[in-house]
C-alpha cells in the first residue's frame, strides 16, 4: 500500500502525494504543550522534506468536529492554532496537519490531493468522526472513498483497554465487522476503526494499521499507564503536491 520507514523516534509513511509521520515519546518529554508538540511535528516534516511548513493544530476535546482549511497564501512556517476540533482537512500543499495522542488513535487519510488528520478516541469514533471526515473529503473536495488511503497509528491496544459496557455499546452503532473488535471487557479501537473505514467504502488494501500498543511500550506516552501526568506524542500529514489553485481568500470552516 505505502512505503513505511521506522526509526529516529518516528514512523514515516509515503502516500503518493503526501507524507504521514507518527512520532513517539522520543524527543517529546512530558510537559510539552500543544504548541510545542506542533513545532516538533514541523521540525520532523522539515527534516524529511527539506522544507519548513506551517503546522496546523487544534484544541482537542474528543468531539466529532472537523475543520477544513484553505488559504490564498501559504501561512508562515511554524505552529498555528485554528480552534476546537478533532480532525483537520486541507487540499493546500505544504501545510502540515497535526494531532497529539496518549492512547487515542492518530489516523491519517490521503487521496485525490486532499489530506486529513484525525484524533480518534472512543467518543469520537462512536460519534462517527471517520464517517464525517470521509464524507467531507467527498462533498468538499470530490474525493470518493475508493480513492482514500488511511494509516491508523499506534494507540492503546485491547490488552490494556478494558472498558465499561457503555463504551462497547456506544461503538456498536457503527460497528459492521461482527465482534472481532470486542473482547471480554475490552475493545480493539484500531480494528474497529479499520472496519469502519471499510464500511465507508475505503478499499481494504488501502488501510494500514501500525503495530503496537501505547500502554505496553515505554517508547510511547500513555494515559492509561501513566495517568494525568502522561505526556503526548504527535502525528502529522502533509500534502507534498498541489491539487488545484487555492481559494481567493483565507477560510476556515
Biggest sheet strand line-up? 1-2-3-13-8-4-6
CATH superfamily: CNF1/YfiH-like putative cysteine hydrolases
Tally of helical runs: 6
Radius of gyration: 17 Å
Low-pLDDT ranges: 244-253
Quote the distance from N terminus to C terminus. Answer: 31 Å
For the residues shown, what is the average pLDDT? 89
CATH class: Alpha Beta
Helix content range of the residues, please? 10-25%
Structural class: alpha/beta
Globally, the shape reads: globular
Named at the architecture level, the CATH assignment is: 4-Layer Sandwich
Extended strand count: 14
Would you tell me which CATH topology applies?
CNF1/YfiH-like putative cysteine hydrolases
- What about the largest sheet? 7 strands, mixed
Domain count: 1
- Helix and strand sequence: EEEHEEEEEEEHHEHHEHEE
Please provide a written account of the structure.
The chain is an alpha/beta fold and 253 residues long. It has one domain: CNF1/YfiH-like putative cysteine hydrolases. Helix content is 23%, strand content 29%. Strand 1 and strand 2 (10-14) form a beta hairpin.
Amino acid at each position: 500500500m505505502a512505503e513505511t520507514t521506522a526509526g529516529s523516534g518516528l514512523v514515516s509513511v509515503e502516500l503518493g502525494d503526501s507524507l504521514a509521520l507518527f512520532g513517539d515519546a522520543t524527543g517529546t518529554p512530558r510537559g510539552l504543550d500543544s504548541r510545542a508538540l506542533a513545532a516538533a511535528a514541523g521540525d520532523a516534516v522539515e527534516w524529511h522534506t527539506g522544507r519548513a511548513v506551517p503546522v496546523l493544530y487544534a484544541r482537542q476535546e474528543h468531539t466529532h468536529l472537523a475543520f477544513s482549511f484553505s488559504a490564498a497564501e501559504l501561512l508562515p512556517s511554524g505552529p498555528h492554532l485554528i480552534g476546537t476540533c478533532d480532525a483537520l482537512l486541507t487540499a493546500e500543499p505544504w501545510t502540515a496537519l497535526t494531532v497529539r495522542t496518549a492512547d487515542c488513535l492518530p489516523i491519517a487519510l490521503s487521496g485525490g490531493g486532499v489530506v486529513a488528520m484525525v484524533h480518534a478516541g472512543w467518543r469520537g469514533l462512536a460519534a462517527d468522526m471517520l464517517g464525517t471526515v470521509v464524507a467531507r473529503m467527498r462533498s468538499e473536495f470530490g474525493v470518493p472513498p475508493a480513492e482514500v488511503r488511511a494509516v491508523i497509528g499506534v494507540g492503546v491496544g485491547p490488552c490494556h483497554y478494558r472498558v465499561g459496557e457503555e463504551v462497547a455499546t456506544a461503538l456498536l452503532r457503527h460497528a459492521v465487522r461482527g465482534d472481532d473488535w470486542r473482547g471480554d471487557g475490552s475493545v480493539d479501537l484500531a480494528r474497529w476503526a479499520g472496519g469502519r473505514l471499510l464500511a465507508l467504502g475505503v478499499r481494504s488494501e488501502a488501510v494500514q494499521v501500525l503495530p503496537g500498543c501505547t500502554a505496553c511500550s515505554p517508547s510511547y506516552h500513555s494515559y492509561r499507564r501513566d495517568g494525568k501526568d502522561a505526556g503526548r506524542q504527535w502525528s502529522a500529514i502533509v500534502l507534498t503536491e498541489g491539487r488545484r489553485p487555492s481559494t481567493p481568500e483565507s477560510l476556515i470552516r
